[in-house]
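pinging the channel bc i need a second pair of eyes. not urgent but kinda urgent?? the chain im working w is below, pasted from the shared doc
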Amino acid sequence: MWRGLYTAASGMVTETKRTDTIANNLANANTSGYKRDEAINEEFEPMLIRRVNDYKGGIDVTRFKNFSVGGGNAPVVGTLGLGSKIAEIATDNSQGMFETTGNPLDLAISGQGYFVVQTPQGDRYTRDGNFYRGSNGQLQTVEGHPVLGTNGPITIPADATQISFGAKGEVRADGQVVGQLQFVQFGDRRALLKQGGNLFYAQQGAQPAPATGDINQGMLERSNTNVVSEMVNLIANYRVYEAGSKAVTTQDSMLDTSVNQVGRMT
């Protein structure tokens, strides 16, 4: 009974973390360039169980006509699950839909690739191309992080009237090249981890490579979160959590009966 109690409780903890993941996806349904997360769970190593008291005093009760299912040992009943846990919070990197804004500083990535921005914690990566020109002329994110080019932050001349971006990140002001965006990608999907603020950071040893995708000007990539699907997942997740809660209640009731009634009768 103790084992059943812990098994059911571990399932409730798993579904609580899954609920947090789904809630975060819903909260970022309108965040440009956001990539939804998926909570991947796995089962703890199951336990092999056997019938007890079937083999005593050299007598194998499973022996019949010179055949023993246990070979002299208690026969195997099967495996017993010991609960579950969240193995990984995986990021779904599927393409989001494009939204035309007409703003020349709005950029959307088609295919693989990330913009590189400068933060107090170091270089970070993002798919959010909602950029602005700061008071110092630098291209910046909404949070004020400079967007990096191959030679440092991209600076746009104050008197520039026409700004254009090439498919691979070339920056032109009034027809003159003023910079080249760092536009990179990573071969391993686990190379980047979410930091928050719609930013990713590279794991130690991960090296960026030139991106194979294209940059589209005057557009933003919308979040790839499907609100309807996430709501359905949230309802299903609640049902699983509710079942785990009832299992905990049942195990607790059985334990109470064993201690207060069966124990007193014996």
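so The longest helix spans residues 227-265. and The longest strand covers residues 84-91. — does that match what u expected or am i reading it wrong
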